[in-house]
Amino acid sequence: MRDTETAWYRLEVEERIGREPQAIRRMFAGVARRYDLLNRCLSLGQDRRWRRSLIAAVADAPAGPCLDLATGTGDIALLLPCPVVGADFCLEMLALGRAKARRSARLPGWVAADALGLPFRDRSFAAVTVAFGVRNFSSLTAGLAEIVRVLAPGGLLGVLEFQRPPVRWKAALHRMWGRWVVAPLGGWLSDDGSAYAYLPASMADFPDRSGLQAALRSAGLYVVKGCEFSLGVVGLTVARKEE
Asked: How many domains does the chain have?
């Protein structure tokens, strides 16, 4: 029985590292109930500051609606000071976002959608925000192409994402945090222990900050801002679509 459980656990992590969409969707559905709590705990409360920085970074976007892609439970969508649509492919996450919206003054629109096939017209949004979502795209190239398609000319894309710290000692510290804190605590508090083994593993083969910026430029955007938080573990990148 133990060998069977271990094999299942490894299969789940391997599927997720491969960005298999159904595996990623199951993962988020499994952790949705404790997702906000785990974000607060595992970031030591810093995730709120990171998200506020993302919102401030797209404040210079042209007037118009915003798309919060991979919205999860809607933390960004509920704070953006403009008409906003929160989109995610996990229905369990969207349900929690809608419940949070009923307790707030904000009323975003909620849409179940895959980032690689967005159900919106070309040039629909003045800004697109993605917080900790692009790392899970099954194809970064295809996901960025869809974002560029729905982004209006002159519109801003703000990406908040985990990344590998470029400095060796910071990278070593982050690996220790992932192994000895993130995976055990995430497994203990969530309903899916393998989900928080995936988190540090998914960062290992995702582009670093310069690689992400290169991908944005290849998609037809130009980078206007980049900064780091928490010893370089989190990066904020802002890019604009040509007018």
From this structure: 1
